[in-house]
Amino acid sequence: MRRAAKPRGGCRTRSGMTVWAMALAIAALSIGAFAPCFAAQAQTNKAPAETRAPITILISIDGFRADYLDRGVTPNLSALAAGGVHAAMRPSFPSKTFPNHWTLVTGLRPDRTGIVANTMEDAARPKDLFTMESDDPFWWNAAEPLWVTAEKAGIRSATLFWPGSNVAWGGTRAADWPHEIIGGTRPEDWQQYNMAITNTQRVNGVLDWARRPAAIRPKFVTLYFDTIDTAGHSYGPDDPRTTQAVAEIDATIGQLAKGLKDMNQPANLVIVADHGMATVSKARTIALDQIANPADYRVVEASTFASLVPVPGHEAALARALLKPHDHLSCWRKADIPARFHYGTNPRIPPWLCLAETGWLVVKTAAAKVDDNGNHGYDPMAPEMAALFIANGPAIKPAGTLPGFDNVDIAPLLRDLIGLPPGSGLDGDDAPFRDVLVK
To answer: Which of 110, 140, 365, 412 is deepest in the core (most CB within 10 A)?
Structure first.
């Protein structure tokens, strides 16, 4: 009989187990005996969790009227308000998007920032017209925004949309194509505005910045949402679809708060709006061509207010027409605009301003088409223009409702939160918040 070949794994013991198998068994028993020690050592060698310094996030919810918070569809925003502070904030005049966003980050009123309207002219550039797409530093250079101040102080900043945040502030634009921008300062990280970028993508962009290593993690961040303003214009502030937009943005704020919590990133959230929203309709319009001769003036902007330039030689005729009493409309020479508006000295403000009563619109002609069901730009004291303000975070005491204040006070608050010294010559200060800041 043929003898069986030896297993290649090594010789056998009397029990039939190979020497190699026995060695492995003994090793396993040894490892098992020492497993608690190995586990303890692994725990000891584990890197400690990062202690993250707080960041400050300035969030604009364009067109969020202060009383939208009372509609019962904002559990996340309401929780942040309850755990921090909130107020009905007064916008600056005119209560339009670009002037107020620039005021929020400069602490200066539109009359001083040079961003005096959404549409404007400048005698130094007679062939140019400023619109909400203008990124030539020429229009913006009169007032330094907070991210530029922060960058100069070595505080890293990042902007995921904010009117003007794509501008190389302090720079100059070459007159000839390709119109290169020479010099200027932008945030360390910034994104060009695009309405197609979803709200979730915007939040994820901010969270990605927050996940960075400390050395390149921004300390000051801005975030911007346009959903509610768009709904307010399209449907009006009282329409259920606008309320649904409020609910959608609230859920988005919840995503941001959860994302920050999941990564243990403390953040001071300052949530603002640029203005509120009033109901308008085509039944409440004031046609300029019905109160003055179109041959006497040129219109720069017309909506909730109209800004007009007289045709040379027609100044007296235009004055006679505009200074007559008009239903639902007040007209002033630039020098006579009521002082409470803090508006009328900047050279970019046209010679005449006509402001409609809240809920009415100024149109160029009686035949003009009115598409909006909501609008803004009215007297900042009108309740419909009141804007959202919420602040919550490790630097904010849970103090509840604050008295109303002007939005020029936001930039001084932000300076406190990110560690900048008080600004010099600003129109606002941090007085509304001194008792609620954690020292």
So the answer is: 110
- Alpha helices (H) along 299-422: 315-322, 410-418
Taken as a whole, the chain contains a residue count of 439
Q: What is the DSSP-derived secondary structure letter of residue 254?
A: H
Catalytic residue among 56, 74, 97, 119: 97
Residues 296-344 pLDDT 10s: 999 999 999 999 999 999 999 999 999 999 999 999 999 999 999 999 9
- What are the backbone angles phi and psi of residue 104, rounded to the nearest 5°? -60, -30
CB count in 10 Å sphere of residue 297: 24
- Decide: pTM greater than 0.85: yes
Domain interval for residue 334: 285-371
| Cα 261 from Cα 359, distance rounded (Å) | 42
Residue 417 domain flag? yes
Q: Are residues 162 and 308 in the same domain?
A: no
Question: Positive or negative CA dihedral for 237, 238, 242, 243?
Answer: positive
Asked if 97 is an active-site residue, the reply is yes
